[in-house]
Write a structure and sequence with these properties.
The structure is a homodimer. Chain A is an alpha/beta fold and about 300 residues long. In chain A, about 30% of the residues lie in helices and about 25% in strands.
Chain lengths: ~300, ~300
């Protein structure tokens, strides 16, 4: 079982090329799949990466540009043909919902599952929560309204020390509270400090997806404290003017965001198709933020 | 320059697989590209086959199922980003035009070329004509309204016999009429038969695209006289019941159509993804119609 794995399905920009597909990623969080963006060809990329359609329940759209959305009708149709049950919730801006619903109703008739559209505010905010995870939208700064998404594991229970549990003969009914950090009070009133009964919980992993956006310190502030940051790096330094004009970032700017946010690692992506490869993106980012890797179709990154 | 070339971009059925893409073909007729159907991923298939976006001016849609249409918004967006000028005409059923126009307007803002939607009647009829070619829609018999398309070269001028033209000292002003079959009348009134002055014109090639459809004799009648017939062969004989239930054909049925129509060659395609390969399709079709080939992504067929 993947604990918290990022799957890169597509990391190209507006025009798909023979090297890079349009944007899409799938977060495999304890075997539940959550997709971010769904460019044309995403369903095929899912097959290539052997990601099970049946486990996909949420799709988060960053913004309403075709290269982040146009794979949606085909994917939802295929889910229907594959006998998907339950529901898929598409989180997107309100202004896109009517059109997307019309398209899905037209091309994906009588699916055996519910297709739910949940509006996302341009200002961001909490968009999803379960017992173990939250997903929060944060504003990005592109030519059109755009949000990033932060996936945060919730605080996890502390690990019980088996020998101590035995030694103090702690009843099963108390174990949950102790795992959550409570001390134990013996029958005679003695208080056993939680630190004697448990060891610290595993660290909580977090992931931020920031695409598309120009460089902005507010993005760095919003992702401060996040472990792994994906930040678009459409261009290299030589094309910084183009980046600014088009509401995109350079690799160096992505690195500055990761540095300012105190991230542990940075993943670059959303490359312009005008480069033969992304070697220069990597060099320029690493000068500022050494722990940088390049996204690529088929790449998986486990957050550990 | 291709004279009349069929390019197979995708020949899978409803669900794209790692073996076959959804439906799309491009007819390269004297360097003008005309597309038939545009499933998801078609723009990428065009790149793979090095078909120039700038030369694409007409797209003919067989029916409004996603696997034949959903690549359209992405393709039209990319044409805009590539600086396409002039126009692209999408020929499709009236009931799809409003939705497709809405999608294109939403995702493909301010293209530098005109996107024209031309309604196609469910009953078929002439949908395109220029000095050298006609495109005619013919009804097919699927679960929903569906048409095939016949591409027919117009009759071509006969070849002048240079030595005879010299011998009879024919003025240039008369050559066009002679190429079109007229006799030549000398100044003294002698009539020189056209057959002495010209040799026969090249044969007129024709191509019929028949997908999606169940087996129907009316299809065979409609494509009678066509040189090369593409006919869907979603299933093999063992799945004939499924074929009928779903409005599709078996490979044998496709072969019967080609035989009844007196075609020269048959191309099979639109394969169900339930088979590991299409060997059996080919065997079963060839028993009925020997000159059968299998469509495959990347295949080109020159009509000569």
């Amino acid at each position: 079982m993947a604990r918290f794995r990022i799957n890169i399905l597509g990391c190209g920009s507006a025009t798909p090329s023979l090297r890079h597909q349009p944007s899409s990623q799938v977060i495999d969080f304890r075997d539940n799949l959550m997709m971010i963006d769904c460019g044309e060809g995403t369903q095929l990329a899912m097959r290539r990466m052997r990601l099970k359609f049946s486990r996909l329940n949420h799709i988060f759209i960053s913004h309403l540009h075709g290269d982040h959305v146009l794979g949606l009708p085909g994917l939802l149709s295929t889910l229907a043909l594959q006998g998907k049950t339950g529901s898929v919730t598409v989180h997107t801006f309100p202004e896109g919902i009517e059109l997307l619903r019309d398209v899905v109703n037209f091309f994906c008739r009588e699916p055996g599952y519910d297709i739910i559209f949940e509006p996302v505010s341009h200002e961001g905010g909490l968009v999803y929560e379960d017992h173990a995870l939250t997903v929060t939208a944060i504003p990005l700064y592109h030519r059109v309204p755009c949000v990033g998404y932060i996936f945060r594991e919730k605080e996890k229970p502390r690990h019980l020390k088996g020998d101590m549990v035995k030694y103090f003969d702690i009843p099963v009914s108390k174990l949950h509270d102790i795992k959550m950090g409570q001390d134990f009070v013996c029958r005679d009133g003695t208080v056993i400090a939680n630190s004697r009964l448990t060891s610290p919980s595993d660290p909580c992993m977090s992931y931020a997806y920031c695409s598309d956006t120009q460089y902005d310190e507010r993005v760095a502030r919003a992702v401060t404290g996040v472990d792994t940051v994906f930040h678009e790096a459409t261009y290299i330094d030589a094309d910084a003017v183009k980046a600014r004009e088009r509401g995109h970032s350079t690799a160096s700017e992505a690195a500055r965001v990761a540095l300012q946010a105190g991230a542990r690692q940075l993943i670059l992506g959303h490359y312009s198709k005008s480069y033969e490869n992304e070697d220069m993106h990597l060099v320029q980012a690493k000068e500022i933020f050494p722990n940088t890797i390049l996204a690529n179709e088929g790449l998986t990154v486990d957050l550990l």
